[in-house]
Design a protein that fits this description.
It is a single chain. With 117 residues, the chain is mostly beta strands. It is built from one helix and ten strands. Strand 2 and strand 3 form a beta hairpin. The radius of gyration is 13 Å and the shape is globular.
């Protein structure tokens, strides 16, 4: 599955939401993606167009213009039948350092983060 967005919105630690780390975006086609995790939980949550799924073992790769999310084939229903989501984003309007910190917080102890920055 592929999405295109100008802006990745990231919050590495939301005090108003019990220190939840959250990354989200809206695609040019109107789709919404959200990945979040509370620091005391072992799994993260991915929501695609309002349908939340709780996952572990997620692999995320961040490059200068692409966020790639890979999940287990058994969890493909979380991504509308795909086990990979590629989100192309604009680094000129996205705070990439904030995205990186947020991904590290979300995936710490429950997934794999790979930086290609």
């Amino acid at each position: 599955m592929k999405m295109t967005t100008d802006l990745l919105i990231a919050n590495p630690c939301d005090d108003e939401e019990d220190n939840m780390a959250m990354l989200c975006c809206h695609s040019a086609q109107g789709d919404m993606f959200l990945m979040s995790r509370y620091p005391d939980e072992d799994e993260l949550e991915i929501t695609l167009d309002g349908e939340p799924s709780t996952l572990d073992g997620v692999k995320v790769t961040l490059s200068p213009t692409l966020l790639k999310i890979e999940i287990a084939a058994a969890d493909a229903d979380a991504l509308n039948g795909d086990d990979v989501l590629e989100i192309t984003y604009n680094p000129d309007v996205t705070d990439v350092a904030e995205v990186e910190l947020t991904l590290q917080n979300i995936l710490k102890g429950t997934g794999t983060y790979i930086s290609q920055l």
